[in-house]
Amino acid sequence: MRRLRSQAAFVAAAVVAGGIALASPAVADPDAGAFRQLVGVGSDTTQDVLNALAGDTVNTTSYSGTAVKSANGAGIASYDAIQPVTGATGTKITTRTGGTTFLRPNGSGAGRTALSQSLTGDLDASGASVKGQVDFARSSGGPSNSGTALTYIPMARDAVGVAVKGSGLDTLTVKQLHDIYIGALTVVNGQTVHPKIPQSGSGTRKFFLNAIGVADSDVPANIGVVQENQANAALTEDGALVPFSVGSWIAQNNGVSPNYSKEAAAAGGHLASVQLPGDTGATSPITTVNGNLAPVNAYYENSTFGRDVYNVVPSRAIDPTSIFFDKDLYDVFVTSGSHTAQLASDNAETVIAKFGFVNESYNGSVSVARHAKLGGLEEGGTFDSSVPNAPAVKSTVGDASLKLTWTPNSAAPAMPVTDYRVTLTGPDGGVVAVKDVTAATRSLSFTALATGTYTATVTANNVNGTGAAATWTGAVKYASTTKATTATTAYGKTPKVAVTVTGTHGVKPTGKVTVKDGTTVVGTGTLDSSGKVTIGLSNHLKVATHSLSVSYPGTSKLNASSSLVSLKITKASAAVSTSHPTSVSHTAKAKVTVKVTATGTTPGGSVRIYQGSKVIATGTLSGGHVTITLPKLSKGKHSLHAFYVGSSTVNSKTGAYFTITSK
Questions:
Q1: Listed residues 442, 470, 498: the one ending a domain
Q2: Rounded to whole angstroms, how far apart are CA atoms 213 and 16?
Q3: Count of structural domains, the chain
Q4: Does residue 545 sit within a domain?
Q5: Nearest to 525 by CA among 517, 536, 516, 539
Q6: Which neighbouring-strand residues pair with 157?
Q7: Domain CATH number, residue 627
Q8: Phi, psi angle pair for 386, to nearest 5°
Q9: What is the pLDDT of residues 467-506, one digit of tens each?
């Protein structure tokens, strides 16, 4: 249970640490000595909901009846971003029985760093070892480093709004926010602004600055730094504004989360409506339902200000084939196939919604196609994030058996090899076996295999992720050859790839052919009885010369084969037509409607109206047309023509001449 203190005691204990005014907390970490197996640290934004999901007491409400646990009964231990009793930063925590005491991670970035240090054994800023002390990180943002070592598992949908004080800031635009946070705009609607920004390492800070197009280094030093999601300490004067998790605002002001904002709200603090990119009006992040604040889905789902919030775990810990697989971590966080994460259960999602977040169908997904993300370890300074080079692999083929032996690469990575992974693929392209073995292992045998062609890959891995693969492929009985041809195609028209696959020894190829542009699949097709297929691709491929790979996966009698083919996509040809009056008063301004069309696409860009060689008016296409108001024309006949300047996908085009008589 989380220990509570009176609000007055909290206020008395409020401190100012590192120049940041901290509001009074209302919960504490798991009781000292009551260690649980799955330790999480990091984000302020998801701190309270994870505390509740852990079964602790949040703001006087006990969630013990809906505590999330693995099938083996392992529970969550969620540690606050700041010291719960005093509100101080820079304090320390102990998360294991007999474990080390290390700096409390304050914010998403710090949480991910602590998780990384838990894997690498590196020391924190105080010199304490974090090795093995953290299992997951709470994060309100995605990866800062590329790689595969960490999997960002989406838990819910949040949004970042702007908490403000002062009616002049009721409605804001992205442009205004950008200019405010680079110091270029100091007054909005007659109100002098006093911008604040969350602490360094805050996921909300990083997300917000990215959303408004501001680099962290461009934020002026005189902008006040405050603890994330604490309006009471941030909205202290008229004109104050600060980026804020909408979910946190809802939970705090509904009395679900500890109070860091209700006094500010009572004094006029509120979330501003924001004109979302592409909209003509502003959207409020919140609404009121039955007397309580609730999310506005249109704001949460917006790609600029809506965001997923994550639980970050080591990728290898949720891989069932890994020797580092953690079944408890997998049970709690991962939804895959028929397995549903405990955090995605009905009870858990009821709790998640209570804290102002929106539940999504991809809760617990580990697929990057369904909102999960992959990232590298997050360590400061000169941390080496490289993975091991491929080992040298040899094979011995026996009677329905295969023995693979390997030698480590002579270039040893900075982070040592932790395991080797061997993947064996069968004649049909399916995976026959995946074996993860210790770093000391140097060989692996497979027996009782069906005859055919097999492919094996061996990778040396470390905490940064999977190393480069060494590949062995057994001899095929028969070979196949894939040939492909293309023709230059204009953008908007369907480019085609004519593919012919042939096999030796009279074997007719069957199955599918895949066409890729880089790593992206752009077309598939099934071979006919003569081994041919013509595949139509997207009519919106980029105008460029594309190097396409055409691959045939083979069959039980034919090996895989592939070829490269060049496809040139040119700009589409435009047609320009005009609609105009034949005459107009010399005191009036004529309007000319220009329509630009092209096969398979709607042109965009600019149109100019020329009189002779002089541009007299311009306009921008919308939906392929634009109405342009001309300047007043002197009396007489005027021979004019429209000129479409073209775009990245459509060629320029001059329209037919037309005449307007000015009377």
A1: 470
A2: 30
A3: 5
A4: yes
A5: 536
A6: 308, 358
A7: 2.60.40.10
A8: -75, 150
A9: 999 999 886 457 789 999 999 999 999 999 999 999 877 8
